[in-house]
């Protein structure tokens, strides 16, 4: 008789929890694992989340399976630390998220109708989250936006929170005007201000660009990752063309590499057209 998937999953989760408990055993565990705490593990959790996103973007499903396991391990690790400190357990974590998902999906688990668009469901989701924040007696509109988020993502979340209480430009043209203004201020800062002041102006420009992304419904993190990938692909194309000439970038110059960059772009466009 075939194993039931749920029973198999429960057994494997219990096995993973037992492995982590053993790794953290003060007498027989791993010295490195024993020394870790919430803060020391947090950077690894963030790194693993990005590696999950990277595997998805590359379409590497086999790699994705492994990265998801690595990310799950981070949750189990933090849960074990929490259990030892008496703060929470893996069971309380899973119970809380299960309760939250049921509460946030009344159209699936409750009496509300499922006959509404994904956009309307998103609006309803935000209303439920706002009610949850109200129950927690959060004092300010921006309270609860995690400080540890990537800066661009946090900028968008801060702007969304402010927009909910009416602090927002009604039209994207005003946001684009602000981009021009901040760009001019940065250009002036380069010549007249200290490095600290230049960095401040640059931060202002990035913050406004995040606002542009929000108004245009663009994920700035995803857009920048895509731009990074495109730059990497095209620069590697330059290196390949130079290699055909028996050269490296160090042996080339900006004018030649710029011309090769344009050649790589044309190749990409032809490939898209013929594909």
UniProtKB/TrEMBL annotation:
Keywords: Coiled coil, Hydrolase. The keyword Hydrolase applies. Residues 172-199 form a coiled coil. It catalyses: ATP + H2O = AMP + diphosphate + H(+). The lineage of its organism: Bacteria, Pseudomonadati, Pseudomonadota, Alphaproteobacteria, Rhodobacterales. It comes from the Bacteria. Its EC number is 3.6.1.8. This is Nucleoside triphosphate pyrophosphohydrolase. Belongs to the nucleoside triphosphate pyrophosphohydrolase family. Residues 36-109, 175-234 form the NTP pyrophosphohydrolase MazG-like domain. GO terms for molecular function: ATP diphosphatase activity. It comes from Falsihalocynthiibacter arcticus. It is an enzyme of class 3 (hydrolase). GO terms for biological process: dATP catabolic process; dGTP catabolic process; dTTP catabolic process; dUTP catabolic process; response to stress; TTP catabolic process; UTP catabolic process.
